[in-house]
Automatic annotation (TrEMBL):
<dbReference type="Pfam" id="PF07732">
    <property type="entry name" value="Cu-oxidase_3"/>
</dbReference>
<dbReference type="GO" id="GO:0048046">
    <property type="term" value="C:apoplast"/>
</dbReference>
<dbReference type="InterPro" id="IPR011706">
    <property type="entry name" value="Cu-oxidase_C"/>
</dbReference>
<keyword id="KW-0186">Copper</keyword>
<dbReference type="InterPro" id="IPR001117">
    <property type="entry name" value="Cu-oxidase_2nd"/>
</dbReference>
<dbReference type="Pfam" id="PF07731">
    <property type="entry name" value="Cu-oxidase_2"/>
</dbReference>
<feature type="domain" description="Plastocyanin-like">
    <location>
        <begin position="81"/>
        <end position="233"/>
    </location>
</feature>
<keyword id="KW-0439">Lignin degradation</keyword>
<dbReference type="GO" id="GO:0005507">
    <property type="term" value="F:copper ion binding"/>
</dbReference>
<dbReference type="InterPro" id="IPR002355">
    <property type="entry name" value="Cu_oxidase_Cu_BS"/>
</dbReference>
<dbReference type="InterPro" id="IPR017761">
    <property type="entry name" value="Laccase"/>
</dbReference>
<keyword id="KW-0964">Secreted</keyword>
<dbReference type="GO" id="GO:0052716">
    <property type="term" value="F:hydroquinone:oxygen oxidoreductase activity"/>
</dbReference>
<comment type="similarity">
    <text>Belongs to the multicopper oxidase family.</text>
</comment>
<dbReference type="InterPro" id="IPR034285">
    <property type="entry name" value="CuRO_2_LCC"/>
</dbReference>
<keyword id="KW-0560">Oxidoreductase</keyword>
<keyword id="KW-0479">Metal-binding</keyword>
Length: 499
């Protein structure tokens, strides 16, 4: 199954893509044509496989240009560079890696390298020739489209001796600001402006990407991918690039420390919607439904007569939302909902708040076991939703990039420690909060989002760290039809895959 990450799929969940949520998987030898219309979106999104860990290799960019004769809300770049996709390289079959991890209950093997457009670069052994080169001309402004397609890691990105101007995140324009380093969680995209130096510099500028990781229990790939920003040589008769870079000095950017939460927080706080007449920030103000979700790790008991590799040899790693570890159905949720055949497939009793409150970022409870179920939240059409997602420190605090299908949302607040429902809402930004489709829940903290439930169907919400998703950190929303014909979900296409 293929998913167009960030495409809203208005009234068209049949083309969304997550297996067993909106449709059944496309079987070997079969085909399915995705028909969808992109409405009101422009910028950079991406597509990827949405079955198990197949996303590790099956992905690509989606570039949505503005309508003809509609200018950018920032100075027009001289040229658009090829999209840059950050990925992970595994020497082993990723399906075998996650299957082994699910069997033993331990953390999966980490990747062997990070990549720029599939190439790891010169900082790894034996890959100096496998280096992505971005060729530029002096004194020009380039639009770079950046995508983090890594399975499990947030990534810092920087170009030596150059600054970047952030103009867009998740295909939504933001108030421009300059930075030497940016941070992308898995699933996020960003458009940035790169202004090259006015004269040809006799140097090689490295572009680096390496992980941002907090002190959770999981392991991660602590390596650095590199690419080269290469200026065209002015003396070349045909403007070909020079191949003799060894004689030039090599400049390397200084990235934040791997656990630099201060930088990550400051960077995220700089992101603001344009909130202009042309690009308004339509933040929901009259909230109808409020939800408080805890997200984090827990455990499952180890099967009898088996030694596991979880936190103890008698437990397996698990993950949950409000202590419910999502059980994937064997029939697609959207089909079951549309045909009123939910019995035995899912229940509508997903908890709106934790059933057993505790000190979420303090001393962990003795019982770390999670519950299991295929539970959903049902929302009437046009419900204005506020959702607070709270990280827990049950097995160590970790950042969780949460992605919501079918919607953009506004990030109205965030903080560290336990969310305070009495005092924290007074600090919410309801004027120009950033609009996204994927947001990182801070390690040992919380994030508050708001969205308007104006898209009927069944919509998946899950952590975009594939290991946490595999362990159950996911759930689904059902948005009911509205009263008008254009507020209802149409019937499925005739060639929809069957289970």
């Amino acid at each position: 199954m293929l998913y167009r990450h960030g495409i809203r799929q208005l009234r068209n969940g049949w083309a969304d893509g997550p297996a067993y949520v909106t449709q059944c998987p496309i079987q070997t030898g079969q085909s399915y044509v995705y028909n969808f219309t992109i409405v009101g979106q422009r910028g950079t999104l991406w597509w990827h496989a949405h079955v198990s860990w197949l996303r590790s290799t099956l992905y690509g960019p989606i570039v949505i240009l503005p309508k003809r004769n509609v200018p950018y809300p920032f100075p027009k770049p001289d040229k658009e560079a090829v999209p840059i996709i950050f990925g992970e390289w595994f020497n082993r079959d990723t399906e075998a890696i996650i299957n082994q991890a699910m069997m033993t209950g331990g953390g999966p093997n980490v990747s062997d390298a990070y990549t720029f457009n599939g190439l790891p670069g010169p900082l790894y052994n034996c890959s100096a020739q496998d280096t992505f080169r971005l060729k530029v001309k002096p004194g020009k402004t380039y639009l770079l489209r950046l995508i983090n397609a890594a399975l499990n890691d947030e990534l810092f990105f920087s170009i030596a001796n150059h600054t970047l101007t952030i103009v867009d995140v998740d295909a939504v324009y933001v108030k421009p600001f300059t930075t030497e380093t940016l941070l992308l969680t898995p699933g996020q995209t960003s458009n940035v402006l790169l202004k090259t130096k006015p004269h040809f510099p006799s140097a090689t500028f490295l572009m680096l990407a390496r992980p941002y990781a907090t002190s959770g229990p999981g392991t991660f790939d602590n390596t650095t991918a590199a690419a080269i920003l290469e200026y065209e040589h002015p003396t070349s008769k045909k403007n070909k690039t020079t191949s003799n870079t060894k004689a030039f000095p090599v400049f390397r950017p200084t990235l934040p420390e791997i656990n630099d939460t201060s930088f990550a927080t400051k960077f995220s706080n700089k992101l603001r919607s344009l909130a202009s007449t042309r690009f308004p920030a339509t933040v929901p103000k009259k909230i109808n439904k409020r939800f408080f979700f805890t997200v984090g790790l827990g455990t499952n008991p180890c099967p009898k007569n088996q030694t596991c590799q979880g936190p103890t040899n008698t437990t397996k790693f698990a993950a949950s939302v409000n202590n419910v570890s999502f059980t994937m159905p064997t029939t697609a949720l959207l089909q079951s909902h549309f045909f009123n055949q939910s019995k035995g497939v899912y229940t509508t009793d997903f908890p709106t708040n934790p059933l057993f409150p505790f000190n979420y970022t303090g001393t962990a409870p003795n019982n770390t076991l999670v519950s299991h179920g295929t539970k959903v939240v049902v929302l009437p059409y046009n419900t204005q939703v506020e959702l607070v997602m709270q990280d827990t420190s049950i097995l160590g605090a970790e950042s969780h990039p949460l992605h919501l299908h079918g919607f953009n949302f506004y990030v109205v607040g965030s903080g560290f420690g336990n969310y305070d429902s009495k005092n924290d809402p007074a600090k919410f930004n309801l004027v120009d909060p950033v609009e996204r489709n994927t947001v990182g829940v801070p390690a040992g903290g919380w994030v508050a989002i708001r969205f308007l439930a104006d898209n009927p169907g069944v919509w998946f919400m899950h952590c975009h760290l594939e290991v946490h998703t595999s362990w159950g950190l996911k759930m689904a929303w059902i948005v009911l039809d509205g009263k008008l014909p254009n507020q209802k979900l149409p019937p499925p296409p005739s060639d929809l895959p069957k289970c």
